[in-house]
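ESCALATION

Customer reports they have been waiting on this structure for their group meeting. Please prioritize. Original submission:
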Amino acid sequence: MVPVFSAADVEAAVSPERALEAVRDAFLAYSHGEWSMPPKVYVPAYPGGDFRAMPALGGGHAVLKWVTSFPGNPEQGLPTVTGLVLLSDASNGSLLAVLDAAAVTSLRTGAAAVLAAETLGRSDAETAAVVGAGVNGRAAARTFLARGRSVAVWDVDRGRAEAAAAELNASVAGSEEEALTADLLVTMTPGHAVLLPTGTLRPGQHVSLMGADGPGKTEIAVDELLRAQVFCDDWEQASHAGDLRQAVEAGCISHDEVTELGRVLAGDAPGRGSDDEITAFDSTGLAIQDLAIALAAMERADELDLSMLDV
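Update from on-call: job pushed to the front of the queue and completed.
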């Protein structure tokens, strides 16, 4: 019998703080070569969205996430992200658990956004904001709050921002412009329009760019990205599917000008260079993060009343 973690089960098993710890450990393991991750496979179903297959191997386990991203779904009363995460024993291939992909995705996305902000932001950063109050945006705001930091949320749909703020006990930014001035900024938009045109970011700001997670998406203008010291979750993936893609294709930035976050966490590369430097983290979402959350959920499987799958 294989345990099945519903979205509620995943959230009950893994707190935002535990998710951040697990994602940090995954970045370190991947940076050290202890975990491996074949390339993410995109199956376009445009203009509606896309399907993604994401495998990873590490810690004696293998994971495969089959997940969707259909940004227009909420207008139809459907979730943007759906799918399953399959966790297997890497020694014999046996299936160990099935987990709700949307819950795993939101936990690890929020954790990665805040982990990057804490690692690359100024030590004296005072304000934090999340632009985009969907499921993943709320996860990032929840993670900031769990880390003891106040956060403001903003969304093009003010009602959605107000609902998120009420749910989380956060505040609503007075305007998009106000949100974009936060010392620690997380963007969780669909990536269909440039949110950060040239000249938007202030000296000393950090931005975690989380919305441009597939081909054709972007949240920041190339010229604005070039004003920052740029970091990413994984060069190969981000340079082909993240905000970095346009800058790479234009020949404006190269691999040696971008630092992977795992190398900073491992102490193998520097992070922020000065208080005045702008830092930008380009995230496309990694299967190693999904594996980390799945393993964290399994730690508490015995405490939960899980459904079982007979396979």
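Sent to customer with the following note: The mean pLDDT is 96.
Escalation resolved.
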